[in-house]
């Protein structure tokens, strides 16, 4: 990953420490829309929502200033469907360079021009889905031609040298044999890659879950191989403990200690709030969410990237962030 500016890293650390002390979110996801260009088999969103209620860029500015996360995701659905996307980016980015801003996209609407414009407006990173290292990606996403679009687009983006493209592979029973292949494809394109765990909580569909002994054994070997690869270069952006935790999540059928609503949270397109993307909840305020969800939360049914990363102690996260993102992150290997 691209090295963080030392001054920005210091501001992030200071704000993160303050948020941790106040038990307010370190990371927030603004789901700009639940409309999507894809209809992914492992997701409960998909298709267009023509009558969706959406708050404005100014509303997002107020929310960001109130919540003050160190990391902010603009996600969906497909966030690039919003015609006011750049207005929202401008609204949520502070003059200080905070927060660290990630666009989570399937890239179906992404172009080289949009990418460069987004960087000019303050986007720090693009997180782009990759389910398979070939055209099976199209089948899983129900979008013909998407893989070829990625094959053409991603190398063009990475050639600009910003080192801020992260392919995201959600591990399912279907793509389990191809995890190293996804890594190799990201490497070929000049991108980085992050792995996360499929959860059946959204769709209640166990077909993509990993639970059979032979699948768990393959997952264990695959994780060991990814850890081996990670030790030789910086293209896999997961920490060692999140990769290991992914195996433990599937092996144990869950992961206790969820901090949804405390360390991270989601804002729906209409401005209501929920603790995470797994539950279709709508709270009018974070205070209401804390009272009605956070205080009694015993959920352990997901290990998606943001939950996995924020499950460790804050000081562990901080030390890892300094080491990986400030000291080492320019070293992508080959």
Description:
By secondary structure, this protein is of the alpha/beta class. The protein has a single domain, classed as Aldolase class I (TIM Barrel). Helix content is 40%, strand content 12%. The chain has helices at residues 6-22, 57-67, 85-92, 112-120, 136-141, 146-158, 179-189, 213-232, 240-252, 286-292, 305-309, 314-327, and strands at residues 27-31, 71-75, 100-105, 125-129, 165-171, 192-197, 264-267, 273-274. An eight-stranded mixed sheet has the order 6-5-4-3-2-1-7-8. α1 (6-22) packs antiparallel against α12 (314-327), α2 (57-67) runs parallel beside α3 and α8 (213-232) packs antiparallel against α9 (240-252).
